[in-house]
């Protein structure tokens, strides 16, 4: 059986070298945190920038999770990666498909990035269905294939002898659905995971209020319901209701949430330039700064600084962005000190 490669392309307003460096050396900045197969939430994504280099993620608990390796390293024209994640979302050193990314200069300041994922027939019977589904999704994310079922909210249908209930769970994505199978197993996609929850910053997201409402909808299921997330390991509704720190925080059952603050603190201490961030994270952990205020200001400020620095400085982004970042962190820490 053969499967057609998946090919996509995008044009970015950046020189070829800058586009290559951001994709490879800056992968941790753009890779969605919820797209992770480790048992603990992701802290960093690392691509070793050399032929034969590892491609892996580091989790908050310090564990490492392999993704693949660098097959061809050709700065600044292309990179070929071995994707060694199976259809069961597990790393397998004996399995690989190939991801080639080409960086084609269209002008001195514009680059066409061409993406190809090939050898998909190695996925076996799952390959054809996956490739066909991707072909039917337009660039704006809309599905163009035939629609077999039109469901009401919480609608139920029969398929292959199974009773399937579609549960609307927006937040991570506006049209997100979770599927309850025979009342015993629920596939939650990118909403509820083992020990964490999905984000609301990926393309097509809605907002935190939607995510919280979706979690409440899922947590109304019986404790013994088995949860199958889009990434990481299965869990149960009961385990997540009682032990998931994000769920407990959203439900008002826990002290101010500190897991993300711990992650921020770990990154800050690892990089001595970000001392104000380390200090602010310590204050979150000691209950001196509300967790949500800190995370919202930190995340929003970092996004704004990245955008401004890229517009102003282009290829000189790295050093000058750090100057702005330290200034922002110092101002943020000072503002909380004054407010207190």
Brief summary:
The protein contains ten helices and 13 strands. With 340 residues, the protein is an alpha+beta fold. Helix 7 packs antiparallel against helix 8, helix 8 runs parallel beside helix 10 and helix 9 packs antiparallel against helix 10.
Features:
340 residues, alpha+beta
Low-confidence stretches: 257-278, 280-300, 314-318
Terminal Cα span: 65 Å
Radius of gyration: 22 Å
Total number of helices: 10
- In round numbers, the mean pLDDT is 74
- Element-by-element helix/strand order: EHHEEEEEEHEEEEHEEHHHHHH
* Secondary-structure class: alpha+beta
Instruction: Record the strand order, biggest sheet.
Output: 1-7-6-5-4-3-2
Characterise this structure.
- By secondary structure, the chain is α+β, with helices and mostly antiparallel strands.
- 35% of the residues lie in helices and 24% in strands.
- It has ten helices and 13 strands.
- The strands form two sheets. Strands 1-7-6-5-4-3-2 form a seven-stranded antiparallel beta sheet.
- The longest helix is centred in the C-terminal third of the chain and has 23 residues, at 291-313.
- It is globular and about 55 Å long.
- Mean pLDDT is 74; it is low at 257-278, 280-300 and 314-318.
How do the helices and strands line up, and which of them pair or pack?
Blueprint: E1 6-12, H1 16-24, H2 27-30, E2 42-47, E3 54-59, E4 64-74, E5 78-83, E6 97-105, E7 111-118, H3 125-135, E8 156-159, E9 162-168, E10 177-181, E11 185-189, H4 208-219, E12 226-229, E13 235-236, H5 237-243, H6 245-250, H7 259-270, H8 275-285, H9 291-313, H10 317-339
Parallel strand pairs: 11-12
Antiparallel strand pairs: 1-7, 2-3, 3-4, 4-5, 5-6, 6-7, 8-9, 9-10, 10-11, 12-13
């Amino acid at each position: 059986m053969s499967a057609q490669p998946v090919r996509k392309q995008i044009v970015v307003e950046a020189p070829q070298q800058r586009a290559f460096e951001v994709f490879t050396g800056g992968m941790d900045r753009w890779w969605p945190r919820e797209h992770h197969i480790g048992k603990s939430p992701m802290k960093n994504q690392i691509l070793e920038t050399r032929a034969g280099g590892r491609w892996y993620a580091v989790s908050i608990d310090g564990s490492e999770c392999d993704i693949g390796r660098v097959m061809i390293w050709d700065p600044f024209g292309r990179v070929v990666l071995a994707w060694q994640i199976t259809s069961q979302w597990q790393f397998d050193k004996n399995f690989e498909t190939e991801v080639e990314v080409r960086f084609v200069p269209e002008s001195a300041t514009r680059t066409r990035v061409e993406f190809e994922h090939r050898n998909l027939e190695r996925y076996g019977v799952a390959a054809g269905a996956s490739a066909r589904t991707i072909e039917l999704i337009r660039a704006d994310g809309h599905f163009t294939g035939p629609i077999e079922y039109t469901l009401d909210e919480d609608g139920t249908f029969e398929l292959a002898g199974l009773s399937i209930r579609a549960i609307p769970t927006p937040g991570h994505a506006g049209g997100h659905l979770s599927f309850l199978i025979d009342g015993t197993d629920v596939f939650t996609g990118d909403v509820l995971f083992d020990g964490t929850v999905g984000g609301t910053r990926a393309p097509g997201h809605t907002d935190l209020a939607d995510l919280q409402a979706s979690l409440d909808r899922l947590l109304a299921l019986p404790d013994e319901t088995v949860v199958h997330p889009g990434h990481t390991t299965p869990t149960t509704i009961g385990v997540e209701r009682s032990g998931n720190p994000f769920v407990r925080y959203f439900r008002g059952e826990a002290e101010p949430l500190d897991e993300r603050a711990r992650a921020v603190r770990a990154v800050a201490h690892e990089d001595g330039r970000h001392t104000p961030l380390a200090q602010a994270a310590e204050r979150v952990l000691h209950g001196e700064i509300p967790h949500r205020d800190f995370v919202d200001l930190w995340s929003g400020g970092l996004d704004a600084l990245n955008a401004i620095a890229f517009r102003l400085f282009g290829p000189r982004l790295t050093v000058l962005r750090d100057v702005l970042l330290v200034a922002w962190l110092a101002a943020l820490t000072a503002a909380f000190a004054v407010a207190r």
